Amino acid sequence: MQTRTHTHTHTQTDTHTHTHTDTDYMYYVTVFLLQICPNIQHLSRPRRTSDHVVGVPIALCCFSFRCVGGNIVLLIQAFRKKFIIPEFDVFAQKINEIYNTVQHQTDGKVADYIPQLAKFSPELWGVSLCTVDGQRHSVGDTKQPFCLQSCVKPLQYAIAVHEAGTEKVHRYVGMEPSGFKFNMLSLDDEDKPHNPMVNAGAIVISSLIKVNRWTCTDCCVMEFVKKMAGQEYVGFSNATFQSEKETGDRNFAIGYYMKEKKCFPPGADMIDSLDFYFQLCSIEVTCESGSIMAATLANGGICPITGEHVLSAEAVRNTLSLMHSCGMYDFSGQMAFHVGLPAKSGVSGAILLVIPNVMGVMCWSPPLDRVGNSVRGIHFCEELVSLFNFHNYDNLRHFVKKQDPRRPDGDDRNKSVFNLMFAAYSGDVSALRRFALSNMDMDLKDYDSRTALHIAAAEGHIDVVTFLTETCKVDPFVEDRWGNLPVDDAMQFRHDEIVKVLKDYQQVFRQQEMQHTKAEHSPKLDTIEGMV
C-alpha cells in the first residue's frame, strides 16, 4: 500500500503573499472542530505560528480532511452563519435560563403504578434540543435513561404510515380527539379507536406492524427507532416490560373489547399485539437521543445527525398533525392553545416537542400532573413559547415582543433602521405612523448615529418633523458622529421654519425631562390616539 507524504514548501515571494498549505487548513479546521465539537478528546488546542501549528497531532491531518470532505456543506453553513439558529450560543443561554426557572417547580407526583417508574427521583430534570441542521444543546439530567412509554405512539404510527400509507392505516384507526382519558374503553361511531395517540389506537397500530411484518422482526423495529435517534442511545428495559404485562389489566380489557368489535386487521393476534405494544413502551432513551428523534420529525423525516431519510414526508405530516391535536392526553386542547406545537407526553415524565423545520426538544422530569403530563415539561414548553415566536400562529412579519432566534442578530434592527430612515428621507408620514404603531423605536440611529429627525430636518420635511416631535416625542438632543443635533442640520440647510419648530420643541422636551424620569414616561402610549 502506497503512503502519500505531504511535503510543505513555503517560498516567500512577497511580504504580502502567503501560500495556504495543508498546515494552514489544518489549523482552521482544528479550531472550528474544537468550537463545534468540544468533547472530541484527541484534538488538542492549536497555537498558530508563522510557519506551522503547535499542538496539533500529525495524525489529525487525515482526520481533519475527512471531516471537511464529508461535511463541506455543514462547514460552509457554519462559517457563513447560515444555521437555522444563527446565534446558537445566545439561544442556548436562554434555554438554560428557562431550565433554571422551571427547576423550582415542585408540584406533581411520580407515577407509581409499576415499580420501575416509581424508583426515579422527583428531582431529576433534563432538557435536550437538536436543530434540523444538527446544532445541539443539553442541560440537566440528559444522560439518564428512561422509558418512552406513550412517547412511542407517534413513532410507531409514523413507521406504520411510512410502510403502508395513510389510507391503509386509517382503515383501522381514526384521527379525531377522543374527548376521553387515554386508557378508556371507547371507540368512535365506526367502531375504530379514535386516534393513534390513545392506548386503543396504539394497540391497533402495533397489530398492524406485527401482522404485516413490514419490518420483519421486533429487532428491526428497534433498529428503525435507532435510525430516528441518529444511532445514539436506544435501549430496552425488560423489567419495565414485565411489569407492564403484570399490571396491564386495563390494556387487556381494551384489547378484548376491540377484539369483540373486530377492530384488529385480519390475521392479527390480540395477545401478541399487546405484548408488542408493551415492548415498544419499554424502549429506553435519554433526553439527548430523544431530542434527535424529535428533530427527525421536525426535519421532514431526515435525521439531522446522520442525514439518513428515515420517514416519508407523508408519515411526518400525519404524525405531527395528530400530535398537535391529540398528543397530550386531556391537556391536548390547552397545549394547542397555549403552546401551539406538536408534542407527545408519557407517564415516565417525558415530553417530545417538535418545532417543525426548526428543532426537536425532549424534556424529562418524573413528577406528573393530574392528567399524566410532566409538570416541569409543560412549564418549560409554555415558557419557551412565551419567549420565542415558535407558536404556530405567532406573527413572524410584524414587530412583536417575542424573540425570533431564526433571524441573525441585528437583522430586525438593520431592516428597521433602513425603513425608518428612508421614510424620513422621502417624507412618508404614513409609513412613519405605521412604524410607530408597530412599537418601533423611533429614535433608532444609522451608522452615522443620525436619527430620523436628523434626516427629516436636513431634507426640509416639516410634516415629518412635526410628527416625530409632537406625536412620537423623539429626543431632539441626539448627536450624530460629527456632534450635530437635528436643529443644526436644519440651520445648515436653511430650513428656517423647521429650525423654529425644533427650538420650541427642545424647550418643551427639557421641561418634560425635568417632570418625568425616563422610566416613568412613555410618550408613545400617551399619543397612540393621535397616531390613529
From TrEMBL:
Molecular function via GO: glutaminase activity
ANK repeats: 448-470
Transmembrane listed as a keyword: yes
TM region positions: 53-76
E.C. number(s) listed in UniProt: 3.5.1.2
Keyword tags: ANK repeat, Hydrolase, Membrane, Repeat, Transmembrane, Transmembrane helix
InterPro entries per the UniProt record, alphabetical: Ankyrin_rpt, Ankyrin_rpt-contain_sf, Beta-lactam/transpept-like, Glutaminase
Enzyme class (EC, first level): hydrolase
Keyword check for Transcription: no
NCBIfam families assigned: Gln_ase
Family as reported in the entry's similarity comment: Belongs to the glutaminase family.
Family matches, as PANTHER family: GLUTAMINASE, GLUTAMINASE LIVER ISOFORM, MITOCHONDRIAL
Name of the molecule in the record: glutaminase
Organism: Dicentrarchus labrax
